[in-house]
Write a structure and sequence with these properties.
The protein has one domain: Alpha-Beta Complex (Creatine Amidinohydrolase). It is about 30% helix and about 25% strand. The protein has a 5-stranded antiparallel β-sheet with strand order 8-7-9-14-15. Helix 3 packs antiparallel against helix 4. The longest helix has 24 residues.
Amino acid sequence: MFGRKNVIELKKPEQFERMRAAGLVVADTLRLLRESVTPGMTTADLDAIARESISSAGATPSFLNYHGFPAVICTSVNDEIVHGIPGQRVIEPGDVVSIDCGAIVDGWHGDAAISVVVGDATPEVDQLLDVTETALWRGIAKACVGGRLSDIGHAVESHVRASGDFGIVEEYVGHGIGSSMHMDPSVPNYGQPGHGPKLVAGMALAIEPMVNLGGRHTKMLDDEWTVVTVDGRWSAHFEHTVAITADGPWVTTAHDGGAERLAALGVPTPA
């Protein structure tokens, strides 16, 4: 909008605690879905499991009715990248199912996504998921006070480019998060380092690389939600919500706060 300045919401420690509560609901729900998904289920079955999990935790789904979205989670299968609507699609052996989940606790949001292979995976699909998830953690490792926003996307892109001939989705990116699910700033998964807003304590970002086996180009289906690859090649999506603190990044949607994966990258996390 003309004249609008980006305003980045800075959180107080007690607000990060509420985001952590929402993040743990998301973490628990995604773990349950990972354990539950099997061939023969429908994507609507997964949505029902997520609905019960979030409700039983006393939280509210972030996605349901968001701009008219009709479900609790997004389920994107194979060549579907993001925003797939759960329905009667039957999950087949070998499918890649990307599951995006959000929850609200006391007005504060958590948002994360995983991609899982149902049954056995081909080597290229295994590599796709590993590259995408590792790129996510490389990006999270740059979410530190004193850095610049573009350092995150540069870390994601550098890992993906070094790993093979993959397509990095550019039309859909990460975002700020907190009292709303989508806030400033946008967090691309590509770019040169040292640009954009300075990273300061109190910022919270949803970092979410989307990586394709083929080209990067996308198109939206007629449901006006589901985004697929133009070339029909398969895609993967991983996401975490990250609170930037003076003591390092705190992954509010990881059960351990991100400690294990970030320690392996030499990055400290809050005690």
